[in-house]
Task: inverse folding
């Protein structure tokens, strides 16, 4: 506690540090909010300048950018179905439908509050238990446990956004299939980068990069939405969403308290594990929230709980991601790798000794992350009161802007044209999917979990001499796999019962 | 300030800049006619923030200072460096598009995954980072503490010892391990980890027994005594790792492959521009800032620079070695 107060004093005690804090906050939020650039872009541009900065301020600035950047993308996700950054992708699933229902203010308000709560909780956990958590997580979670975790995530993802469970599973499997396009994670073999479809031969290096889930999301959600809105305008059936500024009420937050707590823990553990990170945290938080929610059927149609789950989890991952970095010198993602770079530029090595050798730096960083998350509430509240008014602009003027933002977002991701094509194809497919009862969110989940899951599965099998029963010799993996299988069985049973009941009613 | 006043100040500032310019230009390399007046694009086929990206940014900074050029860095990650190639090949051969590439491009060419020969279809300007491989274990591992005890353990547990490595079977990393297995008769289980953080976490967390890596990438773990090298893939011990045996010493008699990162233009770029860029690269490599950058990454342990000719030789030799090994291993 004393260290935290010292850190806070050091942070706000000098004009210079305070200025850098707020610049990082606003910069991270802006770069997070604009599709096509993200906090990594800002980080890569700023990294060379950190050589001439004081290391404490440089690390502090990057950690603030990290916190603010993860939150920033929620706004465009909610208002236009365009996630500003991958971490905010699941926020689209329910955030945008809420906007259409005229609850944009409520959705953004929830995103602001939950980002702050998730981030603050994670910062507190980080401050209390850094070293111990890092060594536990790194030892307890090998490839087997990560595969089991992803399997558990997959087991519940079939029920998201689909009309029936079967359509949900088909959607997820399509996603899993798309995940196999590109260079395989096991032996580096290029898959589907050349071949022929109905006699048409194709071959492309681009395809070796695989299909990224961001252009898919932009297509499925933003582009297809522009298409269907245009259709309803031309038919004269469209109603403009009301731009309400209502904040969620306290009782609404109280109703989702368990979702919030669950997401904090999911986010925190995802953040600690290298290679999982904030994006998967948001997706797992979302799918678990749906699994346990009373309003399960309402997910994907504008359920506040969905926004809460995703935004709490992704910000909870930020504080957690600092733990393996500081305690073990193990950056879990690109931005933490840049922070690692700052340490090295200044001749410091993160690792167990950093808490002793660079005590001040560590605590200024912790304090900065804590206050950055608190500051999100203030800035976010301002944004809610201002940005929502964009919705008052007639859609025929908004639509080209949305398409441009989405295109820039798709291209800016990897600077590859393939992502723009994928986005437009997904846009058309997404428009068609909407009327069939299949789930675009399910496809996206299948794609993300498929890529990570395949890699973890391959490693596990090689480590276990290709004996699948080996999973059940490891307690954590066994429990997660067991829970996953249980979730599948119960969902199948309730689906069969459910349809029987419906049939009975129809008779 | 009135408009005319502002203008006067501006003109004055320009005048000052002009006066100052010749002094700066005397130290700068002379540009070939009509080249270098607009920004030069550097395509980095890997993501922002990674080792290759950091190299491109450090090198571009140095090159800007020595030659007065401006660079724009564009990351095009995907497919292990393959996805960026089409855009590079589509650019005009005017020297305004440079691509960074690493030894993976050479192994991809040798294995037929890409058609472009990095030594012929592209023209290397220079290599600015060359490094070697090592095998690492946990410093606190109680089963073995050096190469000798590691081998004894591996012989007592045949086929059980796991080594975290890259995935791609034709990569320099996997080929080097295959060479080691072939010449020493040892057998390891190689587990592919595509993300570096996972690879290092797997060793520290005890999910694998050893790690195959370049020293610069695990410098902080070595210095924090979380990992230690037990074998260096070189003919002679570098001073920095004087206590670690080399592959040659332990009876692995092959020419160790190296990791190299360098910059390329397309072939067909005018000769004078290539020669100019080659000079820029050498001057940039020798700047204080870049030297420090390389030192911090352990990229000064062996000679890290090759000019155009040296780079072509390095690429051709590596490609030949890869092809021989693929044949031997039946890949």
Result:
């Amino acid at each position: 506690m004393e260290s935290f107060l010292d850190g806070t004093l050091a942070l706000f005690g000098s004009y210079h540090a305070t200025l850098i804090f707020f610049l990082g906050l606003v910069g991270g939020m802006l770069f997070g909010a604009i599709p096509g650039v993200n906090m990594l872009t800002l980080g890569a541009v700023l990294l060379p300048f950190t050589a001439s900065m004081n290391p404490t301020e440089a690390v502090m600035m990057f950690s603030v950018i990290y916190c603010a950047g993860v939150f920033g993308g929620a706004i465009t996700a909610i208002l236009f179905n365009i996630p500003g950054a991958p971490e905010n992708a699941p926020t689209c699933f329910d955030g945008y439908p809420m906007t259409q229902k005229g609850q944009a203010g409520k959705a953004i308000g929830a995103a602001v509050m939950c980002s702050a709560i998730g981030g603050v909780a994670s910062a507190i956990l980080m401050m209390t238990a850094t070293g111990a958590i890092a060594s536990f997580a790194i030892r307890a979670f090998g490839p087997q446990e990560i595969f089991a975790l992803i399997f558990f995530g997959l087991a519940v993802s079939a029920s998201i956004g689909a009309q029936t469970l079967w359509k949900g599973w088909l959607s997820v499997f399509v996603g899993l299939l798309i995940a196999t396009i590109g260079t395989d994670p096991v032996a580096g073999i290029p898959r589907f980068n050349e071949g022929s479809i109905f006699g048409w031969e194709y071959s492309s290096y681009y395809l070796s990069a695989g299909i990224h889930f961001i252009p898919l999301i932009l297509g499925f959600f933003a582009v297809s939405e522009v298409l269907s809105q245009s259709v309803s305008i031309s038919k004269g059936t469209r109603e403009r969403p009301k731009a309400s500024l209502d904040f969620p009420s306290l009782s609404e937050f109280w109703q989702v308290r368990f979702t919030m707590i669950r997401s904090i823990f999911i986010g925190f553990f995802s953040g600690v594990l290298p290679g999982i990170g904030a994006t998967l945290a948001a997706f797992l938080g979302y799918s678990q929230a749906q699994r346990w929610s009373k309003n399960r059927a309402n997910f994907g149609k504008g359920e506040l709980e969905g926004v809460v789950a995703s935004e709490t989890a992704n910000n909870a991952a930020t504080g957690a991601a600092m733990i393996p970095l500081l305690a073990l010198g193990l950056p879990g993602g690109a931005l933490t790798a840049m922070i690692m770079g700052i340490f090295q530029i200044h001749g410091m090595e993160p690792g167990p000794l950093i808490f002793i050798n660079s005590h001040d730096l560590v605590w200024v960083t912790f304090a900065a992350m804590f206050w950055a998350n608190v500051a999100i509430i203030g800035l976010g509240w301002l944004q809610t009161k201002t940005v929502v008014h964009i919705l008052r602009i007639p859609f025929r003027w908004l639509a080209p802007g949305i398409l441009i933002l989405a295109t820039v977002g798709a291209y800016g991701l990897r600077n590859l044209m393939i992502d723009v094509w994928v986005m437009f194809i997904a846009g058309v497919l997404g428009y068609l999917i909407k009327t069939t009862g299949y789930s675009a969110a399910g496809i996206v989940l299948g794609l993300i979990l498929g890529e990570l899951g395949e890699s973890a599965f391959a490693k596990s099998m090689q480590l276990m001499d290709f004996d699948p029963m080996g999973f059940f010799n490891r307690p954590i993996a066994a429990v997660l796999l067991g829970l996953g299988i249980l979730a599948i069985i119960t969902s199948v049973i309730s689906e069969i019962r459910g349809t029987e009941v419906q049939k009975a009613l129809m008779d | 300030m009135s408009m005319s006043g502002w203008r006067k100040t501006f003109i004055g500032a320009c005048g000052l800049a002009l006066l100052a310019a010749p002094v700066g230009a005397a130290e700068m390399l002379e540009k070939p006619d009509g080249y270098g007046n607009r920004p030069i694009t550097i395509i980095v086929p890997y993501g922002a923030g990674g080792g290759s990206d950091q190299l491109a940014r450090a090198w571009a900074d140095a090159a800007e200072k020595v030659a007065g050029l401006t660079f724009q860095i564009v990351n095009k990650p995907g497919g292990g460096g393959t996805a960026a190639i089409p855009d590079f090949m589509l650019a005009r051969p005017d020297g305004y598009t440079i691509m960074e590439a690493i030894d993976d491009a050479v192994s991809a060419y040798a294995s037929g995954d890409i058609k472009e020969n990095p030594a012929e279809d592209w023209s290397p300007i220079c290599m600015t980072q060359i490094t070697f491989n090592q095998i690492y274990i946990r410093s606190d591992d109680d089963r073995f503490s050096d190469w000798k005890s590691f081998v004894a353990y591996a012989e007592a547990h045949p086929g059980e010892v796991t080594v975290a490595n890259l995935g791609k079977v034709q990569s320099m990393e996997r080929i080097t391990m295959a060479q080691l297995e072939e010449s020493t008769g040892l057998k390891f289980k190689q587990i592919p980890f595509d993300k570096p953080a996972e690879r290092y976490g797997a060793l520290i967390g005890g999910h694998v027994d050893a790690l195959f890596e370049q020293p610069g990438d695990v410098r902080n773990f070595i210095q924090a005594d979380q990992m230690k090298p037990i074998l260096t893939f070189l003919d002679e011990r570098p001073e920095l790792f004087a206590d670690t045996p080399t592959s040659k010493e332990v009876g692995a008699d092959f020419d160790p492959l190296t990791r190299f990162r360098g910059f390329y233009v397309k072939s067909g770029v005018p000769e004078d521009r290539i020669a100019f860029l080659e000079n820029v690269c050498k001057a940039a490599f020798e700047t204080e800032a870049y030297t420090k950058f390389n030192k911090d990454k352990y990229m000064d342990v062996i000679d890290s620079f090759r000019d155009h000719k040296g780079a072509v030789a390095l690429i051709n030799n590596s490609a030949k070695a890869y092809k021989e090994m693929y044949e031997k291993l039946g890949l």
Confidence is low (pLDDT under 50) at residues 502-507 of chain A.
